[in-house]
Amino acid sequence: MSDEFRIEKDSLGEVRVPAAAYWGAQTQRAIHNFPITGLRPYPAFVWSMALIKRAAAEVNNDLDLFVDKEVDGRVISGNDMALAIIRAGDEILGGKFADQFVVDPIQAGAGTSHNMNINEVMANRANEFLGFGLLDKNKPVNPNDHVNMAQSTNDTIPTAIRLGALWRLDEMLAVLERLSNELREKACDFDSIVKSGRTHLQDAVPVRLGQEFGAYARAIERDSDKIREAAEGLRRLGIGGTATGTGLNAHPEYHARMVEVLSRLSGLDLYQSDDLFESMQSMADPVHFSGALRTLAQDLIRIANDFRLLASGPTTGLDEIRLPPVQPGSSIMPGKVNPVLAEMLDMAMFQVLGNDLTVMMAGQAGQLELNVMMPIIAFNLFQSMDIIINSVNSFIDNCVVGLTANAEKATGWLAKNAILVTALNPVIGYQKGAEVAKEALATNRTVREVVVEKGYLTGEEADKLLDVTALTEGGIHKN
User: Which residues contact 272 (CB under 8 A, 6 or more apart)?
Assistant: First the structure.
């Protein structure tokens, strides 16, 4: 042993571990075997696993499953070991030792390496509370026998995926509510601005700019409802199924007690699984939740692209809204300003769509009693939530809040829109309307000018029928 390393053992033999590291042999093997992305687990995955370990120590201690242990002449009570594990778990839940969770997201199947990383760190910290240092050869708290008591990777990891997603659910929904509120506020501000509607990217009947923005707000609200509904399935926990769903090595009361303690510690509404075997086999609930995030992502892409179109130009595009200029847009064209926040949101949501594809493919890859692809499900699901929260917050702060309308340009485009003739259909008919529209376009005149010139309507009749604000309210318009 040197000042830089200590020797740890697992079932495969001895491993050199950095002397100051709280992890042990199995984590060290994972570091060596899986240098894949250079990334580490998301905090949600650390928090949720630590919560499970802390809860398990409490439940197993209440069930009198911790036994006294003699180490180097000292007798350590089972109760003291349990309390030390609980204390270690509370520290991790409070954010300490974040640098000790080091296993790459792409790792051994099922997540055994991540599970053991948590077990080893908590065991070593618990041992410190009991007076045993990292370099001590004999220690009372064992990662497998005590921290992992009544557990398997196979039931802790799917439970952690569910808890980790629920941990940030309210935060994500609050961000989406903030976005919908800001969009609805813009809808009120812009409600008096009548502009040309567009379908197929071609001129269509009038809409109010406020109606466009109100629809954006409503879409986000509906997407939030879908996410909230999908999250309900995550509240059903399979903890206690241990290796295959049978509950082998777990007390008969363990499952129910764990759900109760996890609910209390997390403040989340959690439920017992009605079938532990299904909870082990199926990743359908996380896949369904990821699908709801995908639905949100495609709506955010659509809205961001509308912002880009409506702000295009400014001199040669639509220029109906103005986005805040947050940074220079070109390294060669002076004065150019790009819709960078909308572009950022597009890219962020493309990543969410890709993550969802990974989650879906991993979800269907389960076989018999277990889905071993859970680590990549966890990583992609937690990353999607992280990306959504951060990108939408930035989009609100740096784009939506400062967005303004260019009423002059919007109404100017509308005045040239020959499709206003649609409002005359109930009076002059579709065929005459098409004739008027074609002539208005060909001669660069307004619909009103052409329809009055042809004698189809008087000027007063045309003005009444072509009241653009009234047209945005729908209905049949006749004299």
Answer: 236, 237, 255, 256, 259
